[in-house]
Structures are given as structure tokens and as C-alpha cells.
Amino acid sequence: MKVGLVVPQFGVNATKDNLISFIQIAEKEDFESLWVYDRMLSPVNPQQPYPGTPDKREWPEYFKNNLDPLTTLSVIAANTTKVNLGTCIIDMLFHNPITLAKEFTTIDILSEGRVICGFGIGWSKDEYLAANIPYEKRGERANEILEAMKKIWTDDIVEFNGEFYKIPKSIINPKPIQKPYPKILLGGFSPKTFERMVKYGDGYIGALVGSIEYFHNSIKMFNEYIEKSSRARKDFDLTILTYPHLEKSSSSENKKMNRSPMTGKTIEEIGSDLSLLENSGVDRVILAVNAVKDYDVNETMGFVKELRKFCQ
To answer: Of 200, 168, 10, 177, whose CA–CA distance to 88 is shortest?
Structure first.
């Protein structure tokens, strides 16, 4: 199972020194990939709860400060030579398909063919409002964006006439180094995500949040939709984003029994979850461990190197 890392892009740790140090050590230590993710804003009075917080109302503090993902990925491309570079994920509906396709093409060229396109449709109504995009029919819009980007990446003369997006006959160059285009991974939690994946994508980006049972249900849907398609499992990349956390305070037996995935008092506890992912057929795990205030690059690298031992 391949191991990728989320870079220090969010919160008080999103500094140039942290980023450059982190990515250079990660490449030296032969981690397979480096990842960024997308957050447009942090609403003061959110219209929707955030499921990852205890009261589901207050969004995480580190969302209030974040570096732009694609600009950050360009900096990573310029300061590395072999590690793969991915987005987990970019909310594609907040972008014009031509601009988005050209941004990924540019990163693919500058990195000499190392970019992975992780896309989603977002869920925050506040971000949709800020982007001036209707919340309705977001799935249909996503399908058109993917169709348009593929034409931009492959056609000598690009023309697109959709319900939401139109491109007059145009020459749009350059094309990506990777042929026919960089790998497309799609994120989401509904059956529609897997329908979109088998039609337009090359894999799935899930997240190990909530219960293990929920995770297994996502894997089940992933496999079922592939089986119903004309494509084979080997054609798809299954990537899971995780948030490992080593608890430093003592925990009660009751808390141990109800341990959240990727948390624990020991490396072995967290490692058991990584072993579970590998046994479930996961191709790549992404470790995101850099949002806390006491973050240290060298300490974090030591932590993820220990976790990687359970993935080999």
C-alpha cells in the first residue's frame, strides 16, 4: 500500500519554511506522494454543521488560515523531483473548466508528469454562495466539467456545448505530459460519486472518518459499481485520506473500547487501522497529521515513518 502525506498547508503551520522542509524530507524518505486540499472560507455562522467536530457546529480552527492548494502544489513541483503531487480534493464546481484544466496541465508540465487530479463537488452552502454557483444540480455540473476538461486535455480543436458550460471552437494548449491526461480520482460519499467515477474517473478518494462500518460500506459501493461497469478493478485507484492522532493523555477503558479510527495511545493501535485498510484493498493511504498548534516537521516525519511500517 502506497503512503502519501498532506503537506503543512492549513492553520498556524502553513509557512514557507515548514512547507519546504516537509516536502524535501518527505521526498528524501521516499514517500510516494504529497497532497493538498481545498477550503475556500470558514464561515462565522455556517449554514451547515461540520461533521468532524464534537458539536458539529463549530468548524475546525485551522480552516481559518490556509494556503491556496494549486499555487502550493506548483511550489511543491518546483522543489521536488520524483514524488507524486495530488489534490484531496479540489472542489471543481468553484472553478471554470478551462482554467482548472490549464492549472493542472501547468503543474503536470512543471513537475514532469507527476500530478494526480483529485476532484469533488463540495458540500458547504456558504462556499457555493461565495462562488456564485447554485447548490442545485451540482452533480450535473460536475459531469460537464469533467467532460470539458477531458476535451481540453486531449482535443486539438476544443469545442463543448453543455447546459452549464460552453467552449467555442478553440485551440487550448499545451497538453499534459501524462497521456491521455493525469489520473482523475473522485471524492464523495454518495452512490452518485461512484457512478461518476466509473464513467469519468480513474479512482476514488475516500476518508476514514466515522465508524469502520461506514468505511466498509464505502468500499463495498466502490467494488459494486466497478463490477456493474465494463471496466476492471485494476483500472481504478482506491485512495483513503486519514487523520492519525497519537493521544498523549490517559484514556479510560471505555474510551479505548470506543476508539475512533486512526487514533490511539500507541503507534500499534493506529497501525492496526492501517493494516485494516491494506487488507480491504486500499491502494494508497494519505496521512494528514499537521494541523495541531504544537506541530513540528521532524517530529511529524518520525511519526509517519513509524506508521508507514504497517503499510509495507
So the answer is: 10
**Alpha carbon distance 240, 25 (integer Å):** 22
Task: Give tens-digit pLDDT for 276-305.
Answer: 999 999 999 999 987 778 889 999 999 999
Neighbours of 264 (CB within 10 A): 20
Share of the chain above pLDDT 70, in %: 95
User: What's the pLDDT tens digit per position in 95-151?
Assistant: 999 999 999 999 999 999 999 999 999 999 999 999 999 999 999 999 999 999 999
> Which amino acid type is present at position 23?
I
Whose cell is 516537509? That residue is: 22
For 286, counting Cβ atoms within 10 Å of its Cβ (0-12 exposed, 13-18 middle, 19+ buried), the class is buried
Residue 81 grid coordinates: 523531483
Question: In the prediction, which pLDDT does 212 show?
Answer: 87
Pairing of strands 84-87, 33-36: parallel
pTM reported for the whole predicted model = 0.94
